[in-house]
Amino acid sequence: MTSEQLAEWEAYNRLEPIGDERIEFSLAMISSVLTNIAIAALGKPGAKQTTPLDFLPKWDAKEEIKSKTKKQSVEEMKEILKTIATVYDSNRKGR
Q1: CA 55 to CA 29: how far, in whole Å?
Q2: How far, in Å, CA of 9 to CA of 60, rounded?
Q3: Is 45 exposed, middle or buried (0-12, 13-18, 19+ CB in 10 A)?
């Protein structure tokens, strides 16, 4: 492939995405339609409908995700590890 052909494909891809972006948008559209059907059938009258943009991943929003993520305390981590150890021990004894 020549550099000219590569440049043409890159330009085409910007106009008509042929990769993951297109798949993500298709899945977002399907998710939006299904959600809106459920809202219409089961939701409250006048409930807000969704759009495909509501279901698209926000890959550039790393800081937004970090700010929403709650840090675990040391005590929470200890409890989780104790639970894992208890389940592991009970599974070993059952063998």
Answers
A1: 8
A2: 24
A3: exposed
Rounded Cα distance, 94 and 85, in Å = 14
| CA–CA distance, 6 with 92 (Å, rounded to integer) | 57
**Structure-token match 């020549």, residue found:** 2
Write the pLDDT tens digit of every residue in 49-83. Answer: 999 999 988 776 655 656 566 788 899 999 999 99
Judge if pTM exceeds 0.90: no
**CA-CA distance, 77 to 74, in Å (whole number)?**
5
